[in-house]
Structure formats: structure tokens, C-alpha cells
Write a structure and sequence with these properties.
The complex is a heterodimer of chains A (130) and B (310). Chain A has a 5-stranded parallel beta sheet, sandwiched between helices. In chain A, helix 4 links the parallel strand 4 and strand 5. With 130 residues, chain A is of the alpha/beta class. In chain A, helix 2 crosses helix 3. Chain A has a single domain, classed as Rossmann fold, CATH 3.40.50.280. Chain A contains 5 helices and 5 strands. Chain A is globular, with a radius of gyration of 13 Å. The mean pLDDT of chain B is 91. Chain B is globular, with a radius of gyration of 22 Å. The chains are: A alpha/beta (130), B alpha/beta (310).
Chain lengths: 130, 310
């Protein structure tokens, strides 16, 4: 049996629209992954603490509020500080094309914008989880 | 093992890694348990069980906040169901416990049942051991939402809190066998909604019918979302623990559970061994055929297979 992939799905910051996050959570579940769903209005600190306790392989964050340039790097910095840089970080939501290179530079594995097929996200996770 | 050393020194990441090893049943799992076993048996293990949506996670969240005020370290194992079709799971109990995520004295682990049917995951009991060795004074196991017969929590916990809610059926439900028999304490949650008093009365009546009870379980009405009467519930949980210690019931209960776990371990190894031996010798096909053609019967074959390992 191949290793069971564990993913934390979170909605950081102040945005109350979680349909996308739930959809991804459901798609990953149907792909045979264990999804820890932490819900709305998470701080980066909460997300990283949960990721460490849950020993996840990846964190997926959905951001629609426009605060992505702050929240993603913050999570990555906290992971680094807690010796957990091996946890893959991916993101999704309404994120302008122009902002993506900088986020990838900061250490985000991939950004999936609206229109992405869930099968692409599943494939990405399977290929990139250590 | 370096990870165990780190975990014993309070490293959360190491603790989380060890739990994963135990969950994935890797070869390391046995070594981990062998090493930490002497450090276990100190924590008060509390089971929170009840039907889906009864408010188990919310109640756990509120209980843990009170335990933290007493400066007790708490480990939480929150079990949710694994899909029998894909093996995937949505583990969503943390949603109700977000305030606890950053508390250094709390460790929360979500767990999929991964095919295990009794309301727990296969790795739950070993995870309790890890959290116990990690230094948790209290370990709370929140079961999957249970129906009528998921009673494995009694094999893992010292104190079982059965969470009930109004509106799930008439009083006949409360006298059926199964989950209603395992509560050391009954909590009627959502007691602010209509019918809660009636639910509490029905449970009380059911409990009064029981004969030869050494201890009659109390029924506490709570409203977890409003943080109401949680202190009363915790008081009952603590009273139960003291009662068990003072009357040597705790020792009896733990010994029984240790024995059950041992029997399960032996059964599992024995089963694997016999099946493997039979398959290795290529006999599985022939015995199946002899059963299909009714040349012999399953009990005779069982005795033949078992006689080979004696």
C-alpha cells in the first residue's frame, strides 16, 4: 500500500467564503487522502501548529481576501522557524497572475487559481509529497 | 530512538511523527511502544462518545479549557470516519477546537478510522500511550459519531461520557442494549432546546431500571456552545476517577483492558501466521475446494490448520 497522504486545508485570515476549500477537501478525500479541515479565520500560527500536531505532508490554503502576499510567506516563515520546512505549502483562490512568481519564490509549491481541475491538484500532491 | 528521546522531552513534532509511525503500522511502531510502555499508565483517559452532531467536539473544547485552568496538560485524539470506498477522510473535529491550537499544554490529533469499526481507529490505543508518555495528565478520545453498537471506547478509556441530544427517538431507544450501557456519565447536550428535559428524564428512567449497579451514572444537562454547566460535567468526571481509584475499580478496569488488548494482539498475529502458512504451502485453494464440494466442513479444516502450529 502506498503511503496515505495527509493534507491540512485551511482558510487563513478574514474571509468567510469556504466553498472552494470544502470542494478541494472533498476532492482530496475522494482521491484517498486524509484531509484535516480546520475551517475559517485561521491565523498563520494556528495553521502551522495544527500542521505540526497532525504531521501532515502538505498545507493547502484558500485565500480570497487579497491578503495572500502576507499570509503565505508568514506560514512559510513559521514552518521554517519550527523546523518543518519539509511540509509542502500550496495555495488557491483569487490570486492575480502577477503575484504568483513572488509567492513561488517565497517557497509556495504551487498556486491554483479558479478554473483549475481538482485532478491537477491531486496529481501535483501525489508527485510532490515526499 | 532519537524521536522518542525528543518526544519525552516535550517536542510536539517528534510526538506527531511517532503517532504517524504507529498509525501507519510501520516496523518502527512496535519498537516505539516497547520503549515508551514503562512511561504509560499515568494519564486519566476520558472517552467522549455519542451520535453524529451531538456536540462531542464542542464539548471537548470546553472541557479542555477548564482542564487547562487547572494547569493540566491535555492530549486529544479526535476520530472521524474513513471512506470505505476510497480510504480518504475528512477530519473536521479541529474546527470546534481552534482556540486550543496554540496552547502549549494541548496536543490535538485527528485520526481516520481506516477500516476499524468500533468507533475508534486501530491506532487509537497506541496513540493514547504516546500522549501519556508525552506527559499529558488527561487524554481525551473523541469517538466517531456512534450509532447503536460502537462500544470500543470502553476498552480504551477510564471514564466514558455519553453525549446525548434531544430529538433522537422515544424512550424505547434508551433501554436498548449497546451504546447506552457504556456511559459512566451521561451528558444531555443542547439542553437549551425543546425536549432536553424529557431526554434527561428518559435516560434517568433507563438508569433507574438497571439493577445491581455498583454506581449509578449521573446525568448532566449541558449546553456546550454556550459553555453552560461544563464545570458540573467536569466535576462528575473527576468524581468518577476518584471513585474508581478509591474502590480499586480503576485497577480492575485497566487490567481488563490490558488483557483485551493482549488477546487482540495474539489473535491478529496468530491469524496472520496461520493464513500465511496455509497460503505458502499452496493449500488454501485445495481446502477451499474441499469445502465447496462439501467433502468436509469448516470446523474440521480449522482444526487441521491450527494443529499445524502446535
Amino acid at each position: 500500500m502506498s503511503k496515505l497522504i495527509r493534507v491540512l486545508i485551511a482558510k487563513p485570515g478574514l474571509d468567510g467564503h469556504d466553498r472552494g476549500a470544502k470542494m478541494i477537501a472533498r476532492a482530496l478525500r475522494d482521491a484517498g487522502m486524509e484531509v484535516i479541515y480546520t475551517g475559517l479565520r485561521q491565523t498563520p500560527e494556528q495553521i502551522v501548529a495544527a500542521a505540526i500536531q497532525e504531521d501532515v505532508d502538505a498545507i493547502g490554503m484558500s485565500i480570497l481576501s487579497g491578503a495572500h502576499n502576507h499570509l503565505f510567506p508568514k506560514v512559510i516563515k513559521l514552518l521554517k522557524e519550527q523546523n518543518a520546512s519539509d511540509i509542502l505549502v500550496i495555495g488557491g483562490g483569487v490570486i492575480p497572475e502577477d503575484d504568483i512568481p513572488e509567492l513561488l519564490e517565497a517557497g509556495v509549491g504551487a498556486i491554483f487559481t479558479p478554473g483549475t481541475l481538482t485532478s491537477d491538484i491531486i496529481k501535483y500532491l501525489r508527485e510532490n509529497v515526499q | 530512538m532519537e524521536l522518542i528521546e525528543k518526544m519525552l522531552n516535550g517536542d510536539k513534532r517528534a510526538c506527531a511523527r511517532l503517532i504517524s509511525s504507529v498509525e501507519n503500522n510501520s516496523n518502527e511502531a512496535e519498537d516505539i511502544i516497547k520503549t515508551i510502555y514503562p512511561h504509560t499508565g499515568k494519564a486519566h483517559v476520558i472517552g467522549i462518545t455519542g451520535p453524529p452532531g451531538a456536540g462531542k467536539s464542542t464539548l471537548t473544547d470546553k472541557l479542555v479549557k477548564l482542564l487547562r485552568k487547572k494547569d493540566l496538560r491535555v492530549g486529544i485524539i479526535a476520530v472521524d470516519p474513513t471512506s470505505p470506498y476510497t480510504g480518504g477522510a475528512i477530519l473536521g473535529d479541529r474546527i470546534r477546537m481552534n482556540d486550543l491550537a496554540l496552547d502549549p499544554g494541548v496536543f490535538i490529533r485527528s485520526m481516520g478510522t481506516r477500516g476499524y469499526l468500533g468507533g475508534l481507529a486501530k491506532a487509537t490505543r497506541n496513540t493514547v500511550k504516546i500522549l501519556d508518555a508525552f506527559g499529558c495528565d488527561v487524554v481525551i478520545i473523541e469517538t466517531v459519531g456512534v450509532g447503536q453498537s460502537e462500544v470500543d471506547i470502553v476498552k480504551a478509556a477510564d471514564t466514558v461520557v455519553m453525549v446525548m441530544v434531544p430529538g433522537l427517538g422515544d424512550d424505547i431507544q434508551s433501554i436498548k442494549a449497546g451504546v447506552m450501557e457504556i456511559g459512566d456519565i451521561f451528558a444531555v447536550n443542547k439542553s437549551d432546546i425543546l425536549g432536553a428535559q424529557r431526554t434527561a428524564t428518559e435516560i434517568n428512567m433507563m438508569l433507574d431500571l438497571s439493577q445491581n449497579l455498583e454506581r449509578r451514572p449521573p446525568v448532566v444537562m449541558v449546553t456546550a456552545s454556550q459553555n453552560q454547566n461544563i464545570d458540573k460535567l467536569l466535576e462528575e468526571i473527576e468524581k468518577h476517577y476518584i471513585y474508581m481509584k478509591e474502590n480499586d475499580i480503576l485497577e480492575k478496569r485497566r487490567k481488563l483492558n490490558i488483557k483485551r488488548e493482549l488477546v487482540e494482539l495474539v489473535e491478529e498475529e496468530l491469524r496472520k501466521y496461520v493464513i500465511k502458512e496455509t497460503e505458502n504451502k499452496g493449500e488454501m485453494e485445495s481446502v477451499t475446494l474441499s469445502l465447496y464440494t462439501k467433502e468436509t466442513d469448516p470446523f474440521t479444516i480449522r482444526d487441521i490448520l491450527l494443529s499445524k502450529i502446535k
